[in-house]
Design goal:
Strand content: 25-35%
Number of helices: 5
Structural class: alpha+beta
Largest sheet: 7 strands, mixed
Number of strands: 11
Order of helices and strands: HEEEHHEHEEEEEEEH
Strand order of the largest sheet: 1-4-11-10-9-6-7
Distance between the termini: 8 Å
Length: about 210
């Protein structure tokens, strides 16, 4: 996705700082990021994660996903989870008008999801490629007829949220927009949409 946006002329950069200091008028994209919860709040071990991907849970990964994670090298063991202070700053950033695009890897609850009243259910068909279609016409889905990707989680959205894409076979929400304060959080239950091997399928590139 980074290279796709860059080649399209969109100003984009990899965020190499924590989320304690955020620049206004930017859109943050968080792919599979792990949030430190109450159980591991005091732990200094980042875990075997690259932005939240569970390296030690490889029986739940496809061969393509395993290969993509292997190419990340030492990052797979060095990306720390977002801590409580960073979560508060993220929520403040969105509340003041920012946009956060968040693609969770699994159904684990965290403070951000709790704050925006969103719950996740693990997709039963997560190893299969699903067809996603717009839930309704909107400016966020213009030009896209269908997406094809493996879905990790289904979204249980709160009142006032806008479902953008639905799993056509399972009839479950996969992409949604949740207003929060003056800003918004866009949730993507199919993080594979951001992976190289998925960008050439269907209208996946247009999604971004």
């Amino acid at each position: 996705v980074y290279l796709l946006l860059e080649s399209s002329g969109v100003p984009v950069e990899r965020w190499q700082q924590d989320f304690a200091v955020l620049e206004p008028e930017t859109t943050l994209f968080s792919l599979g990021t792990r949030f430190r919860d109450a159980d591991d709040k005091k732990s200094t071990n980042p875990g075997k994660r690259d932005g939240g991907f569970p390296w030690d849970d490889d029986e739940d990964l496809t061969d393509e996903e395993k290969e993509e994670f292997r190419e990340r090298g030492l990052n797979a063991f060095r990306s720390p989870p977002i801590d409580e202070d960073e979560t508060k700053k993220l929520l403040e950033y969105v509340r003041n008008g920012g946009t956060l695009v968040y693609a969770p890897w699994d159904q684990d609850e965290n403070e951000l999801l709790t704050a925006i009243d969103v719950y996740l259910d693990r997709a039963e068909n997560r190893k299969e490629i699903s067809t996603l279609v717009p839930s309704q016409p909107s400016r966020f889905t213009g030009g896209v007829e269908r997406l094809e990707a493996r879905v990790r989680v289904w979204l249980d959205l709160p009142p006032g949220a806008l479902a953008l894409y639905v799993d056509e076979g399972a009839e479950q929400d996969v992409v949604g927009l949740v207003p929060f304060g003056q800003g918004r959080v866009i949730l993507i239950g199919a993080p594979e949409l951001a992976m190289n091997q998925a960008l050439t399928r269907a209208d996946n590139a247009l999604f971004w």
